[in-house]
Amino acid sequence: MFEGLSKRLGDVFDKLRGRGALSEADVDMALREVRTALLEADVALPVVRQFIDSVRPKAIGADVIRSVTPGQMVIKIVNDHLVEMLGGTVADLDLNAIPPVVILMVGLQGSGKTTSSAKIAYRLSQGPQGMAAEMFGGAFSTKRKVLMASLDTRRPAAQHQLAVLGEQTGVPTLPIVPLEMPLAITRRALETARREGYDVLILDTAGRLSIDEELMTEVKEISDLAKPKETLLVADAMTGQDAVNVAKAFNDRLAVTGIVLTRVDGDSRGGAALSMRAVTGRPVKLIGVGEKFDQLEPFHPDRIASRILGMGDIVSLVERAAETIDKEEAEKLAAKVRKGQFDMDDLLKQLRQLRKMGGLQGLMGMLPGAMQAKAAMSKAKIDETQLKRQEAIILAMTPKERRNPDVIHASRKKRIAKGSGVQIQDVNKLLKQHADMLKMMKRVNKLGEKGFMRSLGGMT
Ligand code: GDP
Ligand code: MG
């Protein structure tokens, strides 16, 4: 008995928790925590401000899904916004040009340019084979003939360092000519790559400990000469707040096309990724996760987002809650099915609710024992426009017609088609779909309630 009571109380509590929209107070309270998390993750201060300002209006007024707290809901919204700001999806290298396609590596000294050059060269020359290849796609799924050249004439050992890495990775490097200047090396590298039929030429440049005019001028000249398809700014994820100034300086002078973030293997929470992206507007394309030449990975915005926020648990909690609600809706539908009461109003409700899940196909997919029907439905791929059209058709029906579609004969069909701006065939098609669904549901009903619920339970 007590169990029943506490359960009921729990239900009430759940309803209270997730009721209504996010208030300004809810949002601001949660955003204070987000701010701290971003700063702890070493996101640059101006970027933190800009981020908070852009997510705030998105969160205020948003619906709180049942069974999560307003604070948790804000975190989920912040997370999604962060993923979006980080580019949403994995950004590919663009190597679509007449070979040799040039990749220019720029950045401060010690940021990881030489190491990253070798990593990218290795990955491209392996194609879909080799260590850790399975996580790469896009430009990396084609095996390429790669040449590397070091333009770092400042440090005596720099060119040699690249040559050694070239031997380790099995990627050819341009032979070293003592005392040759960076621009001359660039010219020779381009000629060699052309003459010897290389697909890709990676130019590893010299860095400085801080931004300076001489370095910038030199890199600019190299860029003008080599006309790189990709100019990758290499930045150390551990540099934190400084990352912004570096990114800005390079981006102002060169057409940076992407960012390689190194040392994401360390303690860094990756806040630099957001700073770099926000300041340059360029995507982070690759991350370095160790010193070895195979420790390179594509950049996944969602993974870095939860690392930056450090609130991955909350995000998955809210996602699970959202799934539960979808499941509850499906169970409500199942109850209607059991009672044989699935009319046009229900179909309309389901169409609206399930539009995000891929329309009727999604709905059919949620019903057990619907494999044949599902296969039939997927032949007629239902798109968004079609869904909206179906909605319009139902809306053009009278309440009576919706409750009992059997009364819809020729003249009514004509009226409905006219009212919803479609052809009579479209009305027919929808009616047939509904009839087919009912038929299928009846068949499912014969399985008996137990079997039905069991299969429902297994559909999570
Ligand atoms: P450059 O001066 O920009 O060419 O930098 P280097 O490529 O020479 O790298 C400087 C140091 O950082 C070397 O000791 C590298 O092994 C190390 N390094 C580069 N990338 C990474 C990375 O992703 N993770 C770790 N842990 N170390 C890295
Ligand atoms: Mg170097």
What can you see in these coordinates?
- With 460 residues, this protein is α/β, with parallel strands linked by helices.
- It has three domains: 2-85, Four Helix Bundle (Hemerythrin (Met), subunit A); 101-310, Rossmann fold (3-Layer(aba) Sandwich); 338-457, Orthogonal Bundle (434 Repressor (Amino-terminal Domain)).
- The protein is 57% helix and 8% strand.
- It has 20 helices and seven strands.
- The chain has helices at 2-17, 24-40, 45-59, 70-85, 113-126, 158-169, 182-195, 213-226, 243-253, 271-280, 301-309, 312-338, 344-354, 359-366, 371-379, 384-395, 399-403, 410-420, 424-446, 449-457, and strands at residues 101-106, 146-150, 200-204, 230-236, 258-262, 284-288, 296-298.
- It has a seven-stranded mixed sheet, sandwiched between helices.
- Helix 7 (182-195) packs parallel to helix 8.
- The protein is elongated, with a radius of gyration of 29 Å.
- It starts with a helix and ends with a helix.
- It binds guanosine-5'-diphosphate and magnesium ion.
- Magnesium ion binds next to helix 5.
- Belongs to the GTP-binding SRP family. SRP54 subfamily.
- It is found in: Cell inner membrane; Cytoplasm.
- It is an enzyme of class 3 (hydrolase).
